[in-house]
Amino acid sequence: MRSPITYHLAHLNLAIAREALDHPCMADFVAQLGPVNELAQASRAFVWTPEGEEGGSATAVFGSELALPNLSVWTSLDDLHRFVYQGLHGQVLDRRSEWFEKVPGPAYVLWWVPAGHRPDLAEAKQRLECLAVHGPTPHAFTFTESFAAPEDNGL
């Protein structure tokens, strides 16, 4: 009998910057990137985020140099929710309209992945598109309408 599969939660947040990151109007946002990313990586439920082009080219996948996708994997829906909406990230999120255009369709998506799987931006974009077309399903969902991790039947 094989051991059960453990699932982790993948999260994509897509922002479309009003200007390039080196533009003066983006300075406050850019100044908070490091501290917010450090907090995420120090969170007990944080598992992984791609570094550099590990997840693919944001420009190639999303078709814009202003696309700022943030892809990460977590162990807990509740811990991710707390990180996103509270503390420093929550404060930055409250100011998003200063730095970002409104994304047509959903701005984020969640989905379960087998532990150890490292999704890329192409997979994340497909999940975001699925959410936009079908609404929340076990394949692609939101904090508001979430789904439990799949059960492993040992097959």
Description:
The protein has one domain: Alpha-Beta Plaits. The chain is 36% helix and 20% strand. The protein has six helices and five strands; from the N terminus they run βαβαβαααββα. The protein has helices at 27-42, 58-62, 77-85, 87-94, 96-99, 121-134, and strands at 7-17, 46-48, 67-74, 100-101, 108-114.
Fold topology:
Layout: E1 7-17, H1 27-42, E2 46-48, H2 58-62, E3 67-74, H3 77-85, H4 87-94, H5 96-99, E4 100-101, E5 108-114, H6 121-134
Antiparallel strand pairs: 1-3, 1-4, 1-5, 2-3
Q: Roughly what is the average pLDDT, rounded to an integer?
A: 94
The CATH architecture is 2-Layer Sandwich
Q: How many DSSP H or I helices?
A: 6
Number of domains: 1
What is the CATH level 1 assignment?
Answer: Alpha Beta
Bin the helical content: 25-40%
What would the CATH topology be?
Answer: Alpha-Beta Plaits
**Overall geometric form:** globular
Strand content: 15-25%
Tags for this model:
155 residues, alpha+beta, Alpha-Beta Plaits, five-stranded antiparallel β-sheet, 36% helix, 20% strand, globular
Describe, in short, the structure shown:
By secondary structure, this protein is an alpha+beta fold. 36% of the residues lie in helices and 20% in strands.
